[in-house]
Design brief:
Length: 330
């Protein structure tokens, strides 16, 4: 019995000492960064893991200063076509939101700044002490996973000196800045997801409505079918379209809900692939018809004909002859 208790205590002690991180998740995070940003050095990995732990709390002083600096950075001309968001660290509680979203008018500077402020939590001394222990374990995984990172040992000593001095924040390496010209803000993942999804969805809706007519393609057996549509509304954070159950398109959607949409506004074209999900709720039908009152001569929220669908797993691309394609998921 005593031997069993000793074994259990030994396991618990080992777990407490080595249980700070999920080593597999850390390794996945390291490999992701080194694949997407191969010029990364140890300070860049450190920065991602640190940001994943603490978010932007160490950066934010006041809203006005934060907003002004966002506006300043969006005026820079060295942006590269990077992803709109990038996970930080191994738990991905925070993401880096590319300021190109502000520059391109998808998210306003004020909205992004408000999300930044909402994501900022002060860093305490006890948290820094805990971070020192976590970093030791993360560094061990980095050294085993990517032992050939340039200047690995030198940078490890620099970071150790930083932490021993009571500091914790560090800058990107010169190699990283020269290769990727980073312009981003750290936002809580949930806040960023909701903000970007909502804005992207609204952007697609506005594009579709600006054309007055767009084209929806379905499949009828092995035969593609296409027809003009006009409705598109964002309701309860979903993009909805509407038709009638008596139409062939409704029958085709019921048999195969995967569709494609195409629209052209005179200078850009929008393509969407999605799965349509019918929403039978009367209140959603009413919201759609209230937004499109001209349809009430043919439809009513209480009839058996009105059919409304929201787009699920949608992937949209806005293209033109003069700019790189803009890809949007919602």
């Amino acid at each position: 019995m005593k031997k069993l208790v000793f074994v259990i205590l030994s396991v618990l002690a080992t777990s407490c000492h080595h249980g700070i991180i999920d080593r597999q998740a850390v390794e996945i995070s390291i490999r992701r960064q080194m694949t997407e940003f191969p010029e990364s050095r140890l300070p860049d990995l450190y920065k991602s893991f640190f940001q994943g732990r603490f978010g932007p709390g160490h950066l934010v002083t006041d809203r006005e200063s934060a907003l002004n600096y966002v506006l300043f950075e969006t005026q820079q001309e060295d942006y590269l076509p990077l992803a709109s968001t990038e996970p930080c660290g191994w738990e991905a509680n925070y993401v880096r939101v590319n300021l190109s979203l502000v520059r391109d008018g998808i998210v306003s500077a004020e909205e992004l700044t408000d999300a930044l402020i909402a994501s900022a939590v002060p860093v305490t001394d006890s948290q820094v002490e805990s971070w020192k222990k976590e970093w030791v374990e993360i560094l061990n995984v980095i050294q085993k996973t990517c032992p050939d990172i340039p200047c690995l040992d030198v940078d490890a000593k620099k970071l150790d000196s930083l932490l021993q001095s009571g500091q914790y924040a560090y800058h990107h390496s010169d190699a990283y800045r020269e290769a990727y010209h980073p312009h981003y803000r750290i936002i809580k993942k949930g806040l960023a997801d909701r903000l970007i999804k909502s804005k992207n969805m609204q952007r697609v809706r506005d594009f579709l409505r600006s054309t007055q007519v767009y084209f929806l393609a379905t499949v009828d057996g092995d035969q593609p079918q296409v027809r003009p549509f006009g409705t598109a509304e964002v309701i309860e954070d979903k993009l909805y379209i509407q038709t009638g159950h008596v139409k062939n398109v409704a029958r085709q959607i019921a048999a195969n809900p995967k569709v494609a949409i195409c629209a052209y506004n005179g200078s850009e074209w929008l393509r969407i692939t999605a799965t349509l999900v019918e929403d039978p709720r009367v209140e959603i039908k009413k919201a759609m018809l209230d937004a499109n009152p001209e349809l009430r001569s043919m439809y009513d929220e209480n009839d058996d004909n009105t059919a409304v669908y929201f787009l699920k797993d949608a992937k949209a691309t806005i293209s033109s002859f003069t700019a790189a394609p803009i890809e949007i998921d919602f």
